[in-house]
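To illustrate the input format used throughout this study, we show a single complete record. The first block contains the structure-token representation of the backbone; no residue identities are included at this stage. The design step must infer an amino acid for every position from geometry alone.
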């Protein structure tokens, strides 16, 4: 009787067991590292070219970087003088394309000319020293305000082309 009872318990346990489902492990795609209050410098031939400040930086496996709390860049000329600045509420660096994207209140200033660009999204192709957007832009120059839809420019804002331009500005004859 004991043997029958043990066999009955064993069969009951065996019948109640399901095959364990094998679940695929999801690959982690979040940041591999995180840094706060970041200050970085980019230099060429012992000359500081760019200074970057960011309250928070995430770095991903593929080399991409995210700046969820904003980013501030300062660009310097050969003599070490501040030439232009770029600020954004949020930024992302795409390593494979060597491309930066700023979002939110994006502002670019040419310190020497006192020109200022404002837009909600801006791309910066560092290798080409070009910035561009297809969003609404505002450029303030000495006494003039220019509006447009889309822009292509040098990253120091010395030359630019605005699409669908409108605004009030002086034209010298």
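Output of the design step:
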């Amino acid at each position: 009787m004991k043997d029958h009872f043990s066999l009955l318990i064993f069969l009951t346990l065996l019948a109640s067991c399901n095959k364990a489902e094998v679940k695929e492990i999801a690959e982690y795609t979040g940041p591999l590292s995180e840094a706060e209050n970041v200050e970085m410098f980019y230099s060429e031939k012992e000359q500081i070219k760019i200074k970057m400040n960011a309250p928070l930086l995430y770095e991903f496996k593929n080399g991409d970087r995210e700046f969820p709390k904003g980013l501030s860049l300062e660009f310097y000329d050969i003599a070490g003088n501040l030439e232009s600045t770029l600020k954004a509420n949020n930024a992302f660096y795409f390593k494979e394309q060597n491309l930066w994207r700023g979002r939110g209140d994006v502002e670019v200033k040419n310190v020497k000319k006192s020109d200022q660009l404002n837009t909600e999204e801006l791309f910066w192709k560092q290798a080409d020293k070009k910035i561009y957007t297809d969003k609404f832009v505002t450029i303030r120059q000495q006494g003039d305000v220019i509006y447009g839809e889309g822009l292509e420019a040098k990253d120091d804002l010395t030359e630019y082309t605005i699409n669908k331009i409108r605004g009030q500005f002086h034209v010298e004859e």
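Structural context for interpreting the output: The longest helix spans residues 2-16. The longest strand covers residues 47-59.
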